[in-house]
Amino acid sequence: LIDNVALINATIATNRESDEQCRKKHQSSNVLQNLTIVKFMPEGSMDEKKFNAGPRQVRVKFTFITVGDIDTKSQRFIAEVLIQAKWTEPALRGIHEADDINNFPDVWDPKLRIRNLEEVKSGRDTIWHTVKLGDGDPVVIYKHHLKGAFFEKMELRDFPRDVQDITITLCSALSKSEIDFISDPDELSSVDPSTFQDKQEWQMFQHVEVVKDHLVDLDEEYEEEEDGNNVVKVPLISASCRVVRKGNFFFWNAILIMMCISVLSFTGFAINYQMLKFRLGVSLTLLLTSVAFKLSVNSHLPMISYLTLLDIYLIISMMFLVFMSILFAILSLFSDDHRLAVLLDRICFCTLIFFQILFHIGYASLFFYRTGRNIRKMQKLDAKYKMESEMRVRRPTRGPNDAPKSYAIDLDKNAEQDRDMSYIDGSEV
């Protein structure tokens, strides 16, 4: 037994020495490999970012090809989009012809994904890469074409004349220290309002606004640590086109009907104040009708914790009917004094009519002020976007003879089709 234990200890010591030698040899190999890369790099062309780690800039452009059904209750919309991202790739330096594509190194992967995508529609989900070779650093162009259903948190305070964002949010699995999103300065994100498929209920604006942001997330690798070092800033970039709801449907089918119910409540004053049960029968019947009507309107909206403009109108109208029922009960208490009861009845009738007129004037002013303010803001963004697009069109460009020659080469190794090389004029790119 003693001899066997001694043999086991000797074997463990030998294995440790062997592992240590392999580790030192591997480190030495890595150092030599890095030195070899530096040695063969052309003088003055060393990429400092390769050694000084920093975020790589990715220029993003969004194109809304079509925008389909916008579902307010489920807070989602259907759209077909094309997302383009570009970044420089120093690893592709030295490649000048399409024949060299078989020897290109692995390019940097930004690990992009669409954050608010819920499902892909009709199987349309295609990703491909191309690279532009020219006088400067090679540029990798990532394109993602898909049709899908996207989640959108609806802001319904101004319902039924609300302005909604139709947003596509692109994020990366890399941290903010590794990747930096910016809107493409050479190409504007765009949307074509003529392809909008839900024109009966919505009207689309012409601009697209691109906003860069970040999301604070937890790194699962450090989730168990308590020193707070597990916080990771995930970069985001969002493109939003805007639509405004056409409120005619809800005006004719909600506001107008509730207005008629409120007006009908005044018919209770035509009944003698002493016949309380008939007066209460009219007002309570109209109150129950308004409650059922309110529930039917809520079926078009998600469960939200705040009041919309339509909710404000419906609730105040219901409270008016409740007050009318209480008033009828109070007036019946003055039945002993006929003249006083008739006088109070007429005063209440005139006062409530005045209140209804004043309420509708105030509500209409509030409604058109709040909704009109947002619509005017969107119209200003439309004008700014149109001016910016015209300035880019007028930007002087070099002619075909002066532009550097460049190629577009497919970088997808696993693509079914063969890689094809097409000549591209640098000014057009």
Key phrases:
single chain; 429 residues; alpha+beta; 8-stranded mixed sheet; 4-stranded antiparallel sheet; elongated
Question: How would you characterize the overall build of this protein?
Answer:
- The chain starts with a helix and ends with a strand.
- By secondary structure, it is an alpha+beta fold.
- Helix 3 (248-264) packs antiparallel against helix 4 (276-298), helix 4 packs antiparallel against helix 5 (309-331) and helix 5 (309-331) runs antiparallel to helix 6 (338-394).
- Strands 1, 2, 4, 5, 7, 8, 11 and 12 form an eight-stranded mixed beta sheet that branches.
- It is built from six helices and twelve strands.
Helix-strand blueprint:
Layout: H1 2-40, H2 48-51, E1 56-71, E2 76-88, E3 112-114, E4 117-133, E5 139-151, E6 163-172, E7 179-183, E8 190-191, E9 202-218, E10 231-245, H3 248-264, H4 276-298, H5 309-331, H6 338-394, E11 405-410, E12 422-425
Parallel strand pairs: 1-7, 1-8
Antiparallel strand pairs: 1-2, 2-5, 3-6, 4-5, 4-11, 6-10, 9-10, 11-12
Helix pairs in contact: 3-4, 3-5, 4-5, 5-6
N- and C-termini, Cα separation: 78 Å
Radius of gyration: 35 Å
Give the ordered list of helices and strands.
Answer: HHEEEEEEEEEEHHHHEE
User: What structural class is derived from the secondary structure elements?
Assistant: alpha+beta
Total beta strand runs: 12
Fraction of residues in helices? 25-40%
Please state the oligomeric state of the protein chains shown.
single chain
Tell the overall outline.
elongated
Which parts are unreliable, with pLDDT below 50 for 5 consecutive residues or more?
25-52, 218-228, 414-429
The biggest beta sheet is recorded as: 8 strands, mixed
